[in-house]
Automatic annotation (TrEMBL), chain A:
One GO cellular component term noted in the UniProt record for this chain: cytoplasm
WD repeat windows: 129-158, 159-201, 203-244, 245-286, 307-341, 351-371
Top-rank taxon, per record: Eukaryota
Keywords, ordered alphabetically: Repeat, Ubl conjugation pathway, WD repeat
Functional summary from the UniProt entry: Probable substrate-recognition component of a SCF-like ECS (Elongin-Cullin-SOCS-box protein) E3 ubiquitin ligase complex which mediates the ubiquitination and subsequent proteasomal degradation of target proteins. Recognizes type II iodothyronine deiodinase/DIO2. Confers constitutive instability to HIPK2 through proteasomal degradation.
Designated name of the protein: WD repeat and SOCS box-containing protein 1
InterPro entries, sorted: SOCS_box (IPR001496), SOCS_box-like_dom_sf (IPR036036), WD40/YVTN_repeat-like_dom_sf (IPR015943), WD40_PAC1 (IPR020472), WD40_repeat_CS (IPR019775), WD40_repeat_dom_sf (IPR036322), WD40_rpt (IPR001680), WSB_SOCS-box_domain (IPR051983)
TrEMBL record, chain B:
Gene source species: Pan troglodytes
Transcription regulation keyword on record: yes
Protein name: Elongin-C
Domain of life, per lineage: Eukaryota
Database matches in Pfam families: Skp1_POZ (PF03931)
Main localization (coarse): nucleus
GO biological process, one term: ubiquitin-dependent protein catabolic process
Pathway entry: Protein modification; protein ubiquitination
Gene that this sequence comes from: LOC744141
Any single GO CC term annotated in Swiss-Prot or TrEMBL for this entry: ubiquitin ligase complex
Gene3D superfamilies, per the entry: Potassium Channel Kv1.1, Chain A (3.30.710.10)
Job description of the protein: SIII, also known as elongin, is a general transcription elongation factor that increases the RNA polymerase II transcription elongation past template-encoded arresting sites. Subunit A is transcriptionally active and its transcription activity is strongly enhanced by binding to the dimeric complex of the SIII regulatory subunits B and C (elongin BC complex).
Domain SKP1 component POZ: 19-78
Amino acid sequence: MAAFPLIRSRTIGELLAPAAPFDKKCGRENWTVAFAPDGSYFAWSQGHRTVKLVPWSQCLQNFLLHGTKNVTNSSSLRLPRQNSDGGQKNKPREHIIDCGDIVWSLAFGSSVPEKQSRCVNIEWHRFRFGQDQLLLATGLNNGRIKIWDVYTGKLLLNLVDHTEVVRDLTFAPDGSLILVSASRDKTLRVWDLKDDGNMMKVLRGHQNWVYSCAFSPDSSILCSVGASKAVFLWNMDKYTMIRKLEGHHHDVVACDFSPDGALLATASYDTRVYIWDPHNGDILMEFGHLFPPPTPIFAGGANDRWVRSVSFSHDGLHVASLADDKMVRFWRIDEDYPVQVAPLSNGLCCAFSTDGSVLAAGTHDGSVYFWATPRQVPSLQHLCRMSVRRVMPTQEVQELPIPSKLLEFLSYRI
Amino acid sequence: MDGEKKTYGGCEGPDALYVKLILSDGHEFIVKKERALTSGTIKAMLSGPGQFAEKEADEVHFREIPSHVPSKVYALCMYFMYKVRYTNSSTEIPEFPVAPEIALELLMAANFLDC
């Protein structure tokens, strides 16, 4: 293999869990980190049944003040603030929430549809503090899901139906406050939080633990991944299974859609991250974490290179992966080697911030580490591609009367 | 037109600050040279050896691109400015929105211009 330059990512900061008298006891793990859709808050499970909520812009300012001195331009501190109208009386506050049981999953839900929250122009941000709802859902060890109000830290709803650990939670990005939970009891459940948490549907089909789930950006498709190599796609209008994606050799533990919904990334214990075309089930790219690639038997067992988490960045060009070989890798979808790496021991989960500038990763001891994501001005061709693919599935793209090279580019086959 | 050129610097000569982009139906756009060079194609046309006779006057003729959809040319110029502003800059790179109605044709123009 040709040698490639390994660039180390720039660390932004870290949030360390408070030291506990019983360090080695199970229950400290930080299984999920999450950013609020409007960028106002960051949440992580600190271990020992608590979740900490911090206002993200204040947190970032603290890192910049105490951390690296590379920031020369003060405009980089102008992050989306929900009280830009001058509502100083309602400054976001930190909360520590005791959930009563080990927290396995977290998700923020907003009644504001994500296209609006992720504004193009920062100054135009119209999020009215306290009037639109921002909720935090926590999935617990005993199968319960607790819904909290982010601004007040109060418990709003208690959803009881799963019989086993709720391993992942995700809200639909269209502001409808539909919540999907994935559980070790082999089912996924769909809850309507605007209707008092009424459970609308049970999705059955997994033969084993369900590890993770993710909505497509237009909220029409749900991906669920689980043990025994399972990757399923569900139609969220009719709640039927669209297809099963075959290819992994071991448990699949994480999934994420690209911002235009044209790509799906899945991470597995078989040491690989696959990038699929969710419209036809083709595997477009493979990001390996072990060289030479393991044989199927080795990949299907304990191979020390389990990939734990994968996340798509908001520019649709970069993917971050977290593996057991103590490294975080940033990949570009047009290269097959990582463009940046960072060391991380015992990492369990990762997530990009709402504006895509920071990657947060949670570890086994309840801490979180942050890095600056590799950013560059995307090509106009890629920006146009994302705009087209947000509204056009692959089948329609294939019918377009354009040169074949452009067809391949639009289908992400280059 | 001549008065305008004298005030803002010319399109002629190697030190010209501006270049003129001439589309197939005769519409002319005068763009700052530094920004137009974002496009690999325009850069090649301006600096290539003698086969491009436009080199003398720093004009580029696009015989295939009509201007009947001005929003695309506007989007192209906005992209050039966006790229020059945020390349090698430590500030946050904001999103560059592309309206879905023009996205496909803008993709073809961007592919032609290699940007």
